[in-house]
Write a structure and sequence with these properties.
two-stranded antiparallel ribbon; 420 residues; disordered N terminus
């Protein structure tokens, strides 16, 4: 049998079993308890068991014995500094990785509570972001003749920068905690005998996760999520020969269609105000002109008016009396993909998807990693449009069941769902 020197798995399991910090005496080993592991010990049979007879602590022994001991019996005596010869297909290796996934939850627990400065920063961020991601324009917030010094503008810009960073931090932390919990669920599903040990850590992390979800949701405006969903159902606008497009020449219609595509795509999947996507249209028009100047100001003015019309139509759609009541939806959000330390995390959820899940959650099935959301009809339709094998989505109780959301969520067979 091929054998290789593995430094971590056996020792990691030993540490978990023996460490009081992790509640390790409760870590079950399952079938790996009976696997024989080659150890080296002094002839007295006392002291630590080592992975090699060349260990410094064994050099002074009168003689060294090699023994094949059941892992469950040897684990409490394994030297934490040794490298252990294990076969590459040893069940100890994946079990060690699974135990590590569960134990990793502990690093997010028992942290210092937020201090008053952090709480105040959250409050200020929520107030600032309620008006948008950027400071209001002068003509939106004050009389045009009122002068504001540049230092005041800089301070306001810095305030909004801090608010956006604060929200991004809350979003990232919530998603990271969710991913840790999801991976621990997968580990327990693979090794069900770990469940009694894992349950305490998972329950505690679930409470922390929900607190982080609510902290993130407090920085998101539900009205913007609804307006974003309304953009998705707007009809594609038709190009018209506005004289202000003359500077674009033959590129006018192409620029029009590209501007709509960029604006509607960004607006649909964002947590920002619809107005905050205007720059995408500005960029499309500027790119179309290149270095040419003739007709450029007029074209920008025409597209500003177009964008304002699209925003008005989206808000009218969002404000339209709903033809259907709020709906109960089930979602299983994906975890963050694993990355190397030097790689950035790439969240498979869009900002809109993450915000909708955090904002509208009414129940969570911790063990299944699923969530029930109570959402407006437009949001429900957009969630269904998001459905994929990586993120199953389905209506709960489409026939009007009066069962609680927690019960319906527990009955949801997301693994058997085939997204259309």
């Amino acid at each position: 049998m091929v054998r290789t020197t593995i430094a971590t798995a056996a020792v990691r399991l030993a540490w978990y079993v023996n460490s009081p910090q992790s509640g390790g005496d409760q870590v079950p080993l399952g079938p790996t308890r009976d696997i024989l592991i080659t150890c080296h010990a002094s002839a007295t049979g006392k002291g630590k068991l080592h992975g090699s007879p060349e260990r410094r602590t064994l050099r002074s022994a009168a003689s060294v014995n090699q023994i094949d001991a059941p892992f469950g019996e040897a684990v409490e005596r394994l030297c934490a500094n040794c490298r252990w010869p294990l076969s590459t297909d040893s069940p100890i290796l994946p079990l060690g990785a699974a135990v590590s996934e569960v134990d990793a939850l502990a690093i997010w627990l028992d942290r210092e509570p937020r201090d008053e400065e952090d709480i105040e920063a959250g409050r200020d961020a929520a107030i600032a972001l309620s008006t948008g991601d950027y400071p209001p324009h002068a003509d939106d917030a004050r009389d045009a003749e009122e002068e504001v010094d540049e230092a005041g503008r800089d301070e306001e810009r810095e305030r909004y920068d801090r608010a956006r960073n604060f929200r991004s931090g809350r979003h990232s932390h919530w998603r990271r905690l969710h991913s840790y919990l999801t991976r621990s669920n997968e580990a327990v599903a693979e090794y069900p005998f770990l469940a009694p040990w894992a349950d305490g850590l998972q329950s505690r992390l679930t409470a922390v996760l929900d607190a982080e979800r609510r902290a993130f949701a407090a920085l998101v405006q539900p009205a913007r999520l609804l307006e974003a969903a309304a953009v998705r159902v707007l009809p594609t606008p038709q190009f018209s020969g506005d004289p202000r497009f003359a500077g674009l020449g033959a590129e006018a219609e192409k620029t029009f269609r590209r501007a709509w595509y960029e604006w509607s795509r960004r607006a649909t999947w964002s947590w920002q105000r619809l107005e905050d996507q205007d720059f995408s249209v500005y960029t499309v028009v500027s790119d179309a002109f290149g270095r040419r100047r003739k007709g450029k100001p007029e074209a920008h003015a025409a597209f500003r008016q177009l964008t304002a019309d699209w925003i008005r139509q989206a808000r009218e759609e969002a404000d339209r009396p709903a033809s259907a009541p709020w709906q109960l939806m089930a979602v299983k959000a994906p975890a963050l993909p694993r990355t190397l330390h030097s790689e950035p995390e790439r969240d498979p959820l869009t900002l809109w998807e993450a915000s909708a899940i955090a904002t509208y959650q009414v129940a969570m099935n911790r063990k299944a990693g699923t969530t029930a959301l109570l959402v407006p009809h437009l949001v429900a339709e957009q969630l269904l449009a998001c459905a994929s094998p990586d993120m199953p989505v389905q209506r709960l109780a489409p026939d009007g069941s009066a069962l609680p959301a927690e019960v319906l969520l527990g009955q949801w067979d997301h693994e058997g769902l085939s997204p259309s």
